[in-house]
Fold:
Amino acid sequence: MAHLKHATINGRNDGRNAASLYHMSNAMNISIATLYRKALELMDLGLVIRIGKGHYAITTKGALVLALLYLRGVHDIDLNTFKASISRLKEDWGLSDVKDEEIISYLSLLNKAIDIMKDTHSASMC
Structure:
């Protein structure tokens, strides 16, 4: 998975994470058309936004989803991407003084709550 990196617009870092589809296409050996279609799907889900021609940034929701999936053991998400997601969440949530471990504990608790809600929903459908 491509690492999150800070976007620059007009030569200035805007604090958002971005990746060029062209760069990702080359790095991942995937056609640009396929990546573009996937980018549109991710935008529909609110996980990324378009910040310029061929450049996209991950949203807070996208960073949250990446972090939750990493904690669930999704092996396609590497540690650097997870750490970047945690940093992004801390920045967006105004929690820069909070330790990463505390954010990770909170996200682990969210994952447990999601599991409980799934189990409760499944049981009520029987």
Observations:
- The first strand starts at residue 6 and ends at 9.
- The beta strands are 6-9, 12-20, 48-52, 55-58.
